[in-house]
From TrEMBL:
Domain Nudix hydrolase intervals: 64-213
Pfam families in alphabetical order: NUDIX
Species whose genome carries this gene: Vanrija albida
Keyword list, A-Z: Hydrolase, Magnesium, Manganese, Metal-binding
Descriptive protein name: Nudix hydrolase domain-containing protein
Source organism, top-level taxon: Eukaryota
PROSITE patterns associated with the record: NUDIX
InterPro entries from the UniProt entry: CoAse, NUDIX_hydrolase-like_dom_sf, NUDIX_hydrolase_dom
Keyword Plastid in annotation: no
Cofactor field: Mg(2+); Mn(2+)
Amino acid sequence: MRRLAAIAAQRRAYSATAAPPRVFTRASLASIAAALDAPNRLPLSALPPHPAGLQTAAKTPRPPREAGVLLPLCNVRGEAHVLMEIRAAGLRTHASEASFPGGKAEETDADLVAAALRETHEELALPPEHVRVLGALREEYSLGNLSRVWPVVGFAASHTGEGLADDAPLPDLDLATLVPEPGEVAAILPLPLAALNDRRRHAPHYFRLDGHKPYWKIRCEDLCEPRLDDQEHLEIWGLSGWFLSRLATRLGWTDTPPVYHADDDSV
């Protein structure tokens, strides 16, 4: 009861430290880049070892893989967005879920950034040269496919907008130029940054049911392009929701639900 009351009180009192930008500019991208970690540019062979016990937790004998995902910020129709996708229904893991573009690193990838950009190109036909890498977030493990996932943050646009003033809106990403790979992607999900603070879309959740890792799940079925008839209650959650929350809270764009303590269930 106390936990539910705390969530309700936080919703009433919510005030983000800084509202998300309404549109991305050179100045706003500079501020974002300054707040992020430097992307990991180590060769795949030089990455740190994996902690013990992961294979047992994921119930698989194979060793963990490395994966890179791209969190593409972009302007869409003159409004700031982050570009996501809906995974195809026939995929072996995380089918029909909202996710960021990306996937398993290959031996030919120079590093995790290259892996994220290559996978994004394969899934959405977004050329790597149309993405400006801004920084990164700390890696996290996906237990569904036993991968260490390295999130890279970038800004995607259909052209550079060379010569624009620092406070001028940067060019849009033309969604019509994206070509989802049908075996991997069912739909594009351009998420307006305004949705990060739209309480009508939110439900509290805890990453891997860890009460010290709260975040908001975000309903998004009405934002898919094209709209998916079989998705009546689609949410951004799981590892993708956790990455989105960590990006938004790092930049001061949103809050999180309160941390859960076991004694909060008392009446």
